[in-house]
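Objective 1b. Sequence-to-structure analysis of Cysteine-rich venom protein.
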Amino acid sequence: MGRWTLLFAAAVVFTSVTSGQNTAGQNTRMVTGDVNQFWRFVLDSMRNRGQSSGRTSFSVVYDPSGRRTVTTSSSSSDTGSGSGIPGNIGFGTGFPRNTGSSAGFPRNTGSSTGFPRNTGSSAGFPRDTGSGSGFPGSSASTGSSTNTENPPPPPPAPAFPKPAMPKSNPIVKRPTIPMDSIIENTCTNEYKALEGHTLCMRDDSRVRVSGVSEADKKMITDLHNDYRSKVEPPATDLVTLKWDERLASVAQKWANQCKAGHDKMRKIPSIGMSVGQNVAGGYNTWEESVFHWYDEIRMWKYGVDPDSYLGHLGWKKIGHFTQMVQNATFLVGCGYAECRRSRYTRYYVCDYAAGQSNLAYPYTAARPGSGEGRCSVCPNTCNKGQCDCKGLVCLNGGKLDPNSCTCTCTKLYEGKTCEQLVCPAKDKWICRRDWPESYCDAYTNVPEECPHMCGICKSVTGSTSSSPEVTYVSSSGCQYQGVRSTLDECKAYGRGGDDIHACATKGGNITCTDCDKYYNVKRDMCPVMCGLCDPQCNGKECRNGGTLDTVTCSCSCQPPYEGDMCETVDCAIPDMPHCPYWSVGHCRQYRNVPSDCRHMCELCR
């Protein structure tokens, strides 16, 4: 009976929009679905590959911090984009302004400081973009805080010969291993805290052989590096991969599930990078599995969106290959399981850190005629076509300089590999007040600005406020939910801690509805009305246009008013001689008329 090959690609893929992050998304999986679509895909695969075998490859895409990215478009491997999260949310030195006309009325526009956006703020917070622009020069460095355009695609490369599959040993009949020796206590407290983590799954009872030998670990790593060093067009910035046991333990646990497809939670906190995945089923050896992942290069075109030449969801056909040759991937770890009475019997899983973010530009290609070649960005460390930093990996979003083999760390980490956490004394003021805990998983820069709130820094003193989250109704009837500011903090809000004249409490037309509709109303305009602040000076109010000094709690009155709260007028003072020449209507039109003509304006009765 002839052999045939069926390739699956189940993915959650991230893409970018030039103006910012596309937050709309969908899971695009092709494990189940329309039957006709399924068989059309099978026939296409048979035509493309010209061979047969009852074997399957799967692959996936994740965000740089391990969060699953749910969007449309360009990858077939479950990897992680440097941008898998809907954009950054930024703030500036003051409260984000998306209002602020001279009249003080809310606008639905504003500055790029603090309002939730799908792109990074102009205050310099990292922009989280996806394929096509996630990393400098198409170098997908997870956690990068820069955003540059990718180089233009080179002229079409000549057709490449089909890579030769490496020689492999025939499958060895291994003895059955008791289940007790397969199931390990992998669900530590660290992973129990991550809902649905793969390491907390119980092995499938059908597993009879499990694990990867030391010889196979070396062979798998060498195969990946060999393929990466020969990729066409030549790569200038690929780094030699290193085996990682943490990735291998998660990959092994997923292999022990005997399932076709990808796990949903494989995050490894100690790595601090997104984790991608390639899966294959039914092949006889590791050499065959890795070969067929890489063999997708025959369908791939550098610098071109795969859907444009492979059709709708065409990225599924090349996602295993692009994961293997991502320039932000530094670590690999794999698992293997044989499962009796299962569909594919043999399951091969490789996890990668970081996961892929860009299928069109997985690496930076040498430009024709430029004199560039393989590993040209790292002449000091070039070895066999790759930048070899002897296994050095920058953790927790750090960026590797492949030529000097040094790490540039993000603000929360330091050390040779960015392994040491450095916690600030407290979070930014906006944490918990306008950025709830749910933002920790939704925006990539929030954990960096609010490490205490997001659980990265464990000290209880790091909160911006010791006050609990509350639901509070102000005297104006506005409901506020969150952490309320202290009186000292509120002195910087509104007008010295009081509402401005545009607020309804002062006769203006900004109402309770605007408190939640516009980001800066609570802080910049109406902190008391919106419930963010208690009234200064025990609620003392200065009448008739007077201004409260929140330090001395005294009123500065507008003439002709005086008194503790600007409530009285000295009627012993006569009107000025020119008052008869002014009409009564001027009393409401001109600020100085009531002061000069207090009797004519009927302030004295």
